[in-house]
Amino acid sequence: MVYYITIIVYLFIIYTIFGNNLCVFKETFHITEKTIEDIKLDWVRMAHEKYLYEIQPKPGAKEFIRFLKEKGIKTGCATSNDKNLALAALKPHGWLEKMDSVRTGCEVNAGKPAPDIYLKVAEDLGVAPENCLVFEDIPNGMRAGKAAGMTVVGVEDESAKKHKEEIDTIC
């Protein structure tokens, strides 16, 4: 399992660093047996399986979403992941039908830390940005929420601990 997680994180880092220029990645690491498309497909497949079967909601998230829906408060998901990964993360927990808007980084001009994705979700919800509350565990997501003029709450978890000082300055 550790190997699997390491590969997911590694491929995410590689994909983030090299982006659409995976040719450089392929050349740098002398990968001859896979095409660029194969590398992308491997990453997407592994990430999809991880979101679908292994990643669990943060403690208290299910109860909080249920509370918001009981009170008639609109909810949205603004993620940098692609649509398939977003759906894989939301569906197993029954959250997809609880979201009034689900938007991905692929649907806006600029990804986080630009505010585009949060502004798009606010538009979908029919809510002014200053009336939106963002929960984020990633510094660039926090910056995006702030840049959108929204109130941002930093969600602390194990992965966010390494960014604690940075998160404290943003939120």
Structure explained in plain terms:
With 171 residues, the protein is mostly helical. Helices cover 50% and strands 9% of the residues. The strands form two sheets. Strands 1-2 form a two-stranded parallel ribbon. Helix 1 crosses helix 3 and helix 3 packs parallel to helix 5. The radius of gyration is 17 Å and the shape is globular. The N terminus is likely disordered.
Q: Compute the average pLDDT.
A: 79
Q: Name the helix and strand elements from N-terminus to C-terminus, one letter apiece.
A: HHHHEHEHEHEH
Radius of gyration: 17 Å
Using DSSP, what is the number of strands? 4
Largest sheet: 2 strands, parallel
Total of DSSP H or I helical runs spanning 4+ residues: 8
Distance between the termini: 34 Å
